[in-house]
Write a structure and sequence with these properties.
Elements: H1 3-6, H2 10-29, H3 31-43, H4 52-60, H5 72-84, E1 88-93, H6 100-116, H7 119-133, E2 135-144, E3 152-158, E4 165-167, E5 181-189, H8 190-196, H9 207-216, E6 227-245, E7 251-252, E8 261-275, E9 280-286, E10 293-297, E11 299-303, E12 306-310, H10 312-336, H11 353-360, H12 393-411, H13 427-439, H14 442-466, E13 471-476, E14 482-487, E15 490-494, E16 500-502, E17 510-515, H15 520-535, H16 540-546, H17 548-553, H18 560-569, H19 586-615, H20 623-651, H21 656-688
Antiparallel strand pairs: 1-17, 2-3, 2-10, 4-5, 5-6, 6-7, 6-8, 8-9, 11-12, 13-14, 15-16
């Protein structure tokens, strides 16, 4: 059946023609690449490591064709390294309306999406394919949450067959983000197709018509009519829009009454179609702005205008073939060594049973052999002999070892990377060698991280469009704990100001970064090692009192969460988050507030005095003295801030000693600032001959409170501003 007789809608005909032309362009562009990838994949099987003609010839001669696969373990090492340290996307706010907490919610939603849809399997499959032959793919799609709702979920799905994907040949980005179109191909046998698409035109066609479609569209149907190809076709459509620049600097697409300027921009829309060779089976608008087919690319080369991708297998084939050959030669040599023939005069083996024994001696061990010692004339005959031939085992072994070294050199992985422990090497040295080994193949991990980052961008672009109403969603935190959060509406949670939080994922702009390195579990194990060393140090006693729950949270055993919860309950009230007992009495809180105001005033005074000195620096001749005073002032301000934070933390315990220390500290600050004021006045008058035109700020006094719950302790004498060359300075 001719296509023009099947297609009625001109737009459908135009779309099919466009899709077929683009598909043909992709197929033609990737012919050599796909053949090389297919050869790499076949080489992963033991039968594929011997050329067919060589195997056939050796087997016909009865010679060994051994396959000892030393290459696939290198691939598994790289893949498992990726699985242990899988890159993790992190969401960050970058625009107006975005906030950090909502970014954390989005990040938790991405983790949950990956968990529900086995996204780790999808990424691992793509990475394994990329490590073997240079490319791998996975996809993002949406599906209904269940059969009783219109709510949709986002799914990350693996693509086990990399040759099912055809991407835009003009795409240059390693993550495929700039692709204008892409195809996902599925081959379906005829009887299955008719069950899945019973209302389609092809389902009603006879076998002869199926075969004719194969003639018109050889890439989309089998010539024998046994099946057809169903294609998912994604394409980007850019629609022009007019942007209007308003007086306040904002832009809008709606034409206002007054505006400063206009320009033409383009909005990107992704369309999705499901096609066969003659008709459109389904179509819709993809909610995102990216084509949801995400590649992972290995080593990349541009040769004669064409892209070439390769994994570990491609460059190591010859080394693996050489190893298989020499291994076969070694086995063959050792097996044939006992078959060296006997050499002697004609008839020395005798006849009958005696001859049979001599003939069998090259195949099995025989304790004793007899021979004819005299000829017919009774002349003695020399005993039979065997030529002494030393099998070239050493040379063969050397060739085998050379092939193994070639494998390590071409793959960039040596003994340490494979887990082998060298003698007299520490664990630190072994880990260093392992890191060095992974460096040579780090570009695979780095390319994968780019793809995972693009996955994050695809997801944060989809989430506001799929989850666009008030909804309770499940998120997974970095420690793999699960939480339920309400988005796009009041969450029922209060912020520090007592206002109800709203996590609106439809507002704001967010970006994705990727952390490459150990995952959370690995980091937790490393943290546990550090904590264990701290517990054995002089700080161990303090940690066991103030942070036993943190130590237990790093441990990995079944009852660890229950142990953490019990330890939290026995912590002192001041260390328990959210415990009402941890709140300070109202009098103490009032005093802390007053003292906080005091600290702000004192800190402001330091800045004012420093600014005053800077204003007079042109008039001052003693530049060195001014610099010393300024430096000392800044240092002291830092000390004040640090000591204040420490004292405030101590006062939350309610200890009278801590409160007295705070009172003493404030009195000390008052004296210091009084000394500093006198010093600045003296320097100013001595160096300029007059008093400063603007008055210095008054030294603030501690606010009096009749409810002060402590008795102040006298401050220690001394001036903290010990500037060299000035009164009161230390020796």
């Amino acid at each position: 059946m001719k296509l023009e007789n099947v297609l009625v809608d001109p737009s459908a005909a135009s779309l099919l023609e466009e899709a077929k032309n683009r598909f043909h362009a992709c197929s033609e562009d990737e012919t050599e690449q796909r053949m090389a990838e297919l050869d790499d994949l076949k080489f992963c099987e033991p039968e594929g490591q011997w050329p067919e003609e060589v195997r056939g010839q050796r087997e016909a001669e009865g010679r060994a064709c051994l396959t000892v696969d030393r290459l696939n373990p290198f691939v598994h090492q790289l893949v498992n390294e990726f699985r242990q340290n899988r890159p993790q996307p992190s969401v960050n706010p970058v625009g107006d309306g975005a906030d950090k907490e909502t970014a954390e919610i989005l990040q938790g939603m991405i983790r949950h999406i990956a968990y529900l849809s086995d996204g780790d399997v999808a990424m691992d499959t793509a990475f394994q394919s990329m490590a073997r032959c240079g490319r791998g793919f996975f996809r993002v799609l949406t599906e209904y949450a269940d059969d009783t709702t219109f709510d949709q979920n986002i799914v990350i799905q693996r693509i086990p067959n990399l040759h099912a994907v055809y991407m835009d040949p003009a795409s240059t980005e390693p993550d495929g983000s700039d692709a204008d179109f892409g195809f996902l191909v599925s081959y379906i046998p005829q009887h299955i197709y008719k069950k899945e698409y019973p209302k389609s035109q092809m389902a009603a066609m006879a076998d002869a018509e199926w075969r004719s479609i194969g003639d018109d569209a050889p890439e989309w149907a089998e010539r024998d009519g046994s099946g057809c190809v169903v294609v998912e076709y994604y394409r980007k459509v850019r629609k022009p829009v007019t942007l209007y620049l308003l007086e306040d600097g904002t832009t809008t697409k709606e034409k206002p009454e007054k505006y400063k300027d206009t320009r033409t921009a383009f909005e990107t829309q992704v369309e999705w179609f499901k096609l066969n060779a003659i008709e459109i089976l389904d179509q819709t608008i993809w909610p995102g702005k990216y084509i949801p087919l995400i590649p992972m690319l290995g080593s990349e080369l541009f040769i004669d205008g064409r892209k070439s991708y390769s994994g570990i297998i491609r460059t190591a084939k010859d080394a693996q073939r050489a190893f298989n050959y020499w291994k076969s030669v070694q086995a063959e040599t050792i097996a044939l060594a006992p078959k060296i023939p006997w050499i002697g005069p004609k008839g020395f083996m005798g006849s009958g049973a005696q001859r049979s024994s001599w003939m069998a001696s090259t195949k099995r061990p025989i304790a004793a052999l007899e021979y004819e010692a005299y000829d017919a004339q009774q002349r003695p005959i020399a005993p039979p002999s065997r030529p002494v031939v030393e099998p070239p085992i050493m040379a063969i072994s050397a060739a085998m070892n050379g092939a193994v070294d070639d494998l390590k050199a071409t793959t960039g992985m040596y003994n340490a990377s494979l887990g082998a422990q060298e003698a007299n090497q520490s664990g630190v040295a072994i880990r260093s060698l392992q890191r060095q080994g992974m460096t040579s193949n780090y570009h695979f991990i780095d390319n994968a991280s780019r793809s995972i980052r693009h996955l994050g961008r695809v997801l944060i672009d989809l989430i506001p469009k799929i989850y666009d109403t008030k909804r309770v969603v499940r998120i997974i935190k970095p420690d793999e704990s699960v939480d339920m959060v309400t988005i796009n509406g009041p969450s029922g949670r209060l912020d520090k100001q007592g206002l109800e939080k709203v996590y609106d994922v439809t507002v704001g702009e967010y970006d994705v970064t990727v952390n490459v390195g150990p995952g959370y579990q690995t980091k937790r194990q490393e943290n546990l090692v550090i904590l264990e060393s701290l517990m054995q140090s002089p700080l161990g006693g303090v940690l066991s009192q103030v942070a036993p729950d943190l130590v237990a949270s790093m441990m990995d055993f079944e009852m660890a969460p229950q142990l953490v919860e019990r330890l939290k309950k026995i912590l002192p009230p001041q260390l328990q988050e959210g415990n009402p007992a941890a709140q300070l009495p109202p009098q103490v809180q009032q005093q802390l507030q007053q003292e906080g105001q005091m600290i702000e005033q004192l800190t402001q005074r330091v800045h004012q005095l420093t600014d005053l000195i800077e204003k007079e620096q042109i008039k001052l001749s003693a530049e060195q003295e001014r610099t010393q005073i300024e430096a000392a002032t800044k240092i002291r301000v830092a000390e004040i801030q640090a000591q204040t934070s420490l004292l405030e933390a101590q006062m939350k315990t309610g200890s009278p000693e801590a409160i007295n220390q705070m009172a003493s500290f404030i009195q000390q600050l008052q004296q210091e600032h009084q000394d500093l004021q006198e010093l600045v006045l003296a320097m100013h008058e001595g160096l300029t001959g007059h008093k400063p035109e603007e008055e210095l700020p008054e030294v603030p006094q501690t606010p009096e409170s009749p409810q002060t719950p402590f008795q102040a302790v006298p401050a220690e004498p001394g001036n903290a501003f010990n500037v060299p060359g000035q009164p009161g300075a230390g020796a």
